[in-house]
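Standup notes
- DV: blocked on the single-chain target, sequence here:
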Amino acid sequence: MIKKLFLTLVFSFICLFAYADTVTYYFNAYDSGGEEWENTPADMVDGNEATNANAFWETGMVQLNNGNNCAGTDLGTISKVEIRALRNGIASNQEIVYRPVFGGSSDGNDHAQATGTSKAWGAYIDITSDTNSPETWTWTNVRDLDIDVVANTGFAAGINCYEVEIRVTYTGGAAARRRIIMVE
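- DV (later): unblocked, structure below
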């Protein structure tokens, strides 16, 4: 009986603290009239994977996406924050550089990814420990995360960016506690 109780408690403890979940947000605002791509910049932040912003022939063009759809609600303890984008280039020698902006003014590291000529999601880029990132991430930090999206066209035709996402990995929170109660 004691052994069974002990195993149940150990299992509950592991489930409570080891359960990891993810949630995904997208950037939904940009610096209109400031740092924006030259063609349809609003389409990068409209949440529609069928529409895109385009940087055409001009390498180094920056769009500052300065809002996302995270409300800042505490879902649990954050262990990882990542970004990725749905994008493509017109030529094969192009890349997009993603630079997170923390707290509205502190730039993180530059993360370059080749675009490829087919529309596709890029690999997730871990920004959890970037330069100037929060030492301990909170949901307010996620809500306040901005990003510079830099088009390096290589002076070729252009780059399209359809959407930029944030994926947050977290543990604990109400969802994990509900699962434990259901298991017991």
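- Follow-up: The mean pLDDT is 86.
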